[in-house]
Amino acid sequence: MKLDGVDVKMRLEGKALAPLIPGADVPALHQPFSLESRLVSNGDVWKLSSIEGDLGESSLRGDALLDMSRKTPFIQADIKSRKLDVGFLKSLTSGKPDKPDATPQQFPGLDMLKTVNALVHLESSEITGTDLPLDDFALDLALEDGVLVINPFKLGVAGGKLVAEIRLDASVPEPTGKIAMRFDDVPVSPLLDPFVQTVDIGGIVDGQFTVGFSSDSIGTADGRLHYIAPKKGTDLTFKLDRVRNEQEWLLQVSVDGTFRGAPAQGSFTGQPFHLLDDPNAAVPVDLNLTLADTRAAIKGTVAELGNLINVNASMAGPGTDRLSRITAIDLPDLPGYKASGHIVRDHDTVKVEALRARLGTSDLAGSAIVRNMLGDGKPFIGLDLASETLAHSDFDQLFGKGGKSTDWLEQFDKLNANVEVAVKRAIAPKQVVFRNIRLDGVLKDGLFKLTLMRFQVAGGKVAANAAVRVDQIKGTDKKKSLRGTVKADVDNVHLAEALKPLGLGDNVPGWLNADIDIALGPEARKRTGKSTVRYDDRQGTNLEFALSQTPSATVLKGDGTFLSEPFRLSGTAGPLSRLVSDHRYPFDIYFKMLETSGQMAGSLREPLAFDGLKSSLEISGPNPRRAEPVVGFRLPELPPYRLKGDLFRQKDIWRFTDIKGTVGDSDLSGKIIVDNQKGKPYVNADLHSNMLDFDDLAGIIGGIPGTEPGEVASPAQKEKSAALANSNTVLPDEDFEFDVLSRFNADVRYDADRIDSDTLPLEYMTLNFSLKDGRLLVKPVLIGAAGGVVKANIRLVDKPGERPVRGEVELEVDRLRLENIANAYGIADESFGSIGGQATFQTRGESVAKMLASIDGQASFMMAGGALDAMLVELGGLDGGEALLTWLGKIRR
Q1: Which one-letter DSSP state was computed for residue 631?
Q2: Which residue has the higher pLDDT, 292 or 656?
Q3: Which of the 8 DSSP states describes residue 129?
Q4: d(CA 210, CA 188)
Q5: Which of 861, 781, 857 is nearest to 821 (CA)?
Q6: Range with the lowest mean pLDDT among 245-254, 433-442, 449-458, 827-836?
Q7: Residue 405 has pLDDT above 60, yes or no
Q8: Contact assessment for residue 426 and residue 432, using Cβ atoms and an 8 Å cutoff
Q9: C-alpha distance from residue 400 to each of 137, 431, 594, 725 (Å)
């Protein structure tokens, strides 16, 4: 039954127009709609006039006609749109709009062009549904018996204009076509910004081109496009042409000019129009590009819209520094590089074969494969690589960019892998060299089997194997630990050679041997792993460490001799399975060596890097100088000490806080921070004593702490004090090690509320100590003395490296009571008064004695409101003999 003579006004609403229009199953009509129109029918001819409404997000106004009386349905439309939404175009590759998760469709065939004829005029002042700045759109479309003509096609692009003419003939067995396009001041940046947000492109494009083609050849290709961005130093000319290979004519696009001030050349050769006949056809591609002395080339075929790839690829350049500046892309700073290989993709499998690469001094060869990279299962990575030389310095920037590091434990359950690597020579950080490395490993379903790892280092050999799995720690969402077994043998590794690049070779000149057998996690319940580590320098240090395990803890024990003196270490730590987890690793260690004993108890966030330390520390000994062989530089001679506090480490910053304890007869509290972030250590300390026994400071200036009855001193210090008493030396003549001052920078504040001195009328002290690049400044020293104040500024090592050392002292004295000074020495007890003044001294020398012996300068002092007895008068007049008789007479009386 036919409807005829219909003349009605209607309103239609629905989810899609396509089902209502025979032969019009196109993506644009698969959108919600709401339309009002007058509908008139005359047989099989239907007219819609005065159309008003919306299709998707587009507004429509105009007239349309559908003629079903013809052999091929005919559509005619004249549509004006205030706003045209082109978002539906995404459905060409992503399915219909109401199915955003649909499987991507292949490139549509051309048969649909034969199912309908059409004559359409469409225009719109506003374009939406895209991030591109488009407007002023217009086209006239004619489709008849499979021949499509769009002329003109006009589009405003951010103030510029794009005009095109398109012809496509699908009526013949081998489709042909022609595209002619003209660019008038089209800005590039607005077109690319939505896709390339990290690079500021800028510039405009002018020019035109024409391409005539069939599904198997390029008939004509001609035209030029000019891209210019003067402020960016960019001026490029793109030229279209055709070239012939052995079988067909191909499209060639070449580029020449400058990009951001650097020469740029390139070319693309291919035949993309094979896709017109077969959307899955293999398209030949040949791409060459040169920019900033970087050369890239790709040659081969691409099919199924990139799902099938078979190309040879290469890339080479002198480094990424210049390329990074020119492209404004934050590339890792890499040295000169060169790489080539054969890349094959078959849907979710990608293989790189015949890989040859060089980066700086490093080389790499072999093959790689990745399977199931897009599927629902676990990806598989296979590597078979070999290298003559691998240098960490060539690759460190690859891992230095990008912020947070990858938690590699998380990857255990996310992929499978098979790795075989052979390296003849590897240069680790600090130039530590490993040789003849071989590593074979398999990761499958969360179980990693290191079937073989061996290498040579520092004249010794290391071999290991392991089988480990990641376990979730009960009661946590993210924290993980390892379970399994690890075995290793270390044979005669010379630590002095191995650690010399780290600056530690002098501290550990011996040889290391070890038998490691570790059971991790639940495996520790089945078997007890026992390990032994031995160190021998064959010069008095012979240490052996034993490590045993339980499921919940690791027991440590060390015995032997250190510098021919007894050494002992004992303690417990967490299970070894937690060493690489994100769970804090606990420990409790006691040690005794060089008469110094200590205990640490706490935990580490990253135990293998000894980072994230939170620990208590108690340490005691007869004299800090005994620890010199451990710390590696000169320490002051101080009396026996006992200190405790909290020790922290965060990356390169150490903090020893809440210090409490004693040094000799003095108490000490405060904090010390050591910052190694800039290479040279920086020490910042704030220390305090309620009571300072002034004798305890003698070791700081090269002397010996007090050893009289009642004073705290070690046996060695008492022996040295006795030797000093029998010598002709009054002042310390031991040279300072000024070269040490250039090894670190420091800011130290120390204050003592009360000073106990048998020989000086001292009351309190504040000291500010600054050391920078070998220049020592003590400014100020404030000392309460004899009822007044002494202020001093001291500068030493004014010219680092100069010997003997030069120094300067500025001294101010304010209201010192003469009677307090005289009484301290038991002389002139009838004198009294207030003394003030100032002095400036210059000095040279390597010790306190030498500095005082070379003092030169000037001083002025005044006394007010007092009197001098005969003793001080005679001394002031340099009549020493009479002064001595006067003093002796007072003693007799």
Answers
A1: H
A2: 656
A3: S
A4: 20
A5: 861
A6: 827-836
A7: no
A8: no
A9: 48, 18, 41, 60
